[in-house]
Amino acid sequence: MVQSKNQRKADVLRTNLPEPLDSVDARILDLIQHDASLSVAEIADRVGLSSSPCWRRIKRLEDVGVIRGRVTLLDREQLGLAFEVYATVKLSLPTKENLDLFETAVKNWPEVVQCATVTGGEDYVLRIVTRDIHDFDDFLREKLLSSGLVSNCQSRIVVRGVKDSTAVPLGLVSPHVAGLNGA
Fold first, then answer.
1. DSSP 89-148
2. How far is the first Cα of the chain from the last one, in angstroms, to the nearest whole number?
3. Are 182 and 34 in contact (CB under 8 A)?
């Protein structure tokens, strides 16, 4: 039997969450992911709850791991960190031990702001941020390539960012969020 799009969405929610997201939970998440500085009172007002029930919902969403944390987003260009590179990395020998060693090293390199394992001819994609091309070259030589684990690295320098969002597409898992965008 072929499942409809809505049935698949409902199955995903049942699989990943102890309770499905209702419209209030979805609205709370959408507000928080667009502005984590909102107070519980402000969120409660926007979703039509009093502060205590709103706080309990937020706490429950934190306890089940839907809300992993709240951060302040910094403008890296204002801080002089305008050089951004995406690099694909292939390990010399992608054994479990080497994968673990590489991932441990990456976690200790502040220049790497994102790292993902990928399919295809490479093992990883890294997003690297430095002050300039000289700092990037230092990172390549002194950290990435000197690790002894990398057989190939191909870099793509970002000329201009087009979209940079930390918001997850809640509309894909909850029909209650479509078009909200923090409004």
1. EEESS--HHHHHHHHHHHHT-TTEEEEEE-SSS-SEEEEEEESSHHHHHHHIIIIIGGGS
2. 38
3. yes
Which residues are CB-contacts of 103 (< 8 A; sequence separation ≥ 6)? Answer: 115
Domains of the chain as residue ranges with CATH: 5-71 (1.10.10.10), 83-157 (3.30.70.920)
Q: What is the pLDDT of residue 3?
A: 56
| 78: phi then psi, degrees, rounded to nearest 5 | -65, -25
Tens-digit pLDDT profile for residues 86-130:
999 999 999 999 999 999 999 999 999 999 999 999 999 999 999
User: In the numeric block, which tokens belong to residue 6?
Assistant: 């809505």
d(CA 133, CA 144): 15
CA distance 85 to 26: 34
- Full-model pTM: 0.80
